Amino acid sequence: MAVLDWVITAVVLAGVIGIGLFTRRFMKSVADFLAAGRSAGRYLITISYGVANIGAITVLAFFEQNYEAGATLMWWEALLQIALVLAMLSGWVVYRFRQTRCLTLAEFFERRYGRGFRVFSGGLAFVAGVLNFAIFPLVGSKFFVFFCGLPPEVTLFGQAIATHVPLMIFLLGIAIWFVFTGGQVSVLTTDFAQGVFSNVVFVVISVYLLVLVGWGDIASVLATSEPGHSKINPFDTASIEHFGILFFVISLIEVLYGQMSWQGEQAYFSSARTAHEARMGGILRLWFLQIRLVFFLAVPLVAWTILHSDAWSGVQQQTTATLAALGDSQDVGRLRVPVVLSIVLPVGLKGMMAAMMLAAFVSTHNTYLHSWGSIFTQDVVLPVLNARGIRPGRRAHLWMLRGAVLLVAIIAFVYSAFLYTPTEPIMLYLAITGAIFLGWSGTVIIGGLYWSRGTGRAAWTTAVIGSVFTLTSFVLKQRGVSGLPDGKETLGLTILLCVVTYVIVSWAGGEHFDLDALLHRDPKAPKPTRGWAARVLGFTPDYTRGDRITAVATIGLIGFWFVVFVIGTVWALAHLAGGGSHAAMTDAWLTFWKWRIVIMLVTAVFATVFLAVGGVGDLRRLFAQLRTAERDDRDDGIVR
What we know:
Layout: H1 3-23, H2 30-35, H3 42-52, H4 56-69, H5 72-90, H6 94-100, H7 105-113, H8 115-133, H9 136-147, E1 153-156, E2 159-162, H10 164-213, H11 215-222, H12 245-257, H13 266-270, H14 275-306, H15 313-324, H16 329-344, H17 349-387, H18 394-419, H19 426-450, H20 456-478, H21 487-509, H22 515-518, H23 532-537, H24 545-577, H25 586-628
Antiparallel strand pairs: 1-2
Helix pairs in contact: 1-10, 1-17, 3-10, 3-14, 3-25, 4-14, 4-16, 5-12, 5-14, 5-24, 6-14, 7-8, 8-17, 8-19, 9-10, 9-16, 9-17, 9-18, 10-14, 10-17, 10-18, 10-25, 11-14, 12-21, 14-16, 14-24, 14-25, 15-16, 17-18, 19-20, 19-21, 20-21
């Protein structure tokens, strides 16, 4: 990279560190460390949670996925987003969980199913989370080596070692420092700053690349895709490996089933000021989603065009030479698009891309280190100590949390550097390791919050069966056993198995649980009357006039694309049923994707500004509330 690129990267890193130094003064209790004192507003949660979900590994995973699948998976995205709208408007899972006032999911498990299940589920969440997180440092650091043009090896103490190894230590050290200094307060605020910057970079780079290559060149190359492997026609994808219709169907189920199940960002679930703020954060998250989607769609399409167009033969030769030096087919798939970007992005934009990826790396790593360290302490160690009458004070409790964070970082480094063997695309690895916990926890969470007949015995049985099934699949895959379902298919099978198990065992138990007490609500209180529109849209008395406008606007945006999806699907199926060919639809699909990208870019610009302005206001309120709040040392996530 040029000097200017390094300067941009350094300035962004220095700015984030400065925010971390400023915010550490506000962390004064265990609740502050775990949940930012439950003081975060909707915009702050939206951006911080959103960027925590877009780590460097996530960017590379979507590059890998959409380079293979093209725009076709984006067509089915309309169904995912309509499901998200329904979930967010109703506060599905999130609202009820916030009503419990639990600091972690496993604390909820203890209140609902008992202390033993809390320790067991906390342990499984920790194992699944660390296995899932453990490749993040490796994948992210390899990106920086190849994108920034660093030498593949360096000499330390007379020994030649891969450059990504010391780079992992450096980057993990930055993330650890953020968590140590201010816990969730620092994580939340620094992630917000990194999120705003990343959103700007997403839009700028997307526009630049589309203008650089031009839609005419993009369309001509995309139109030449092989039959069954179309990059634009979602009904002509039979030959696409891993990322076809089944991948999407399981993803759609996962949206509703897995709400709040994955605990990599668990602190955000309990950081909101109120349950309603958490729900509104979920609605606004759909606007944040538009920003990342256009980036993840446009960049791989441009990269595919560059690597398949005669006009870019020079870039193709450089890319081939660079990828040939990798020697690992999985690395080739993950780093192909970044290598193209490192060649075609000009000075300045290349620095912005590197700084954005650094921000994404740090935001995800500090969030995941905080989450898995907190879960290990709160849901495994402390319940065991508490059962023996050992109650650490506030200072000791905080240092136990920090020690757990360090433990997670060490495990991730050792696994990344010495143990991990890549056998499938990133998305599928994340799916199977996530399924070790997510595969069964969705059943137990939904049943525990919404069904009074759900029993502890059913929760135990479901957790054991689901975790054993997925752990066995994971071990066999790491040993190179062929012919097994891929990671996403394993997740789908686990979900089906666990739902059936939980329902059968619960019905056989015949027990009833007091959900009103768990959710802190008065069963005798009269239910508020609402009009038909409020009932249909899920509006409660908590919704202000502005909240309703925001919700209706969100429904309008997602509903528009859903209507387009329905009309387009009916048209395509009718065309094929009438004997029409896929080739005859090519021009129509190219026109659609051109305007889809344009509209998404306009939406992304609006969302970037709107969310950033709202987030700044939330940031001020967060500091004001933390500055004057009275802390209660008993608010530490321990069930007494």
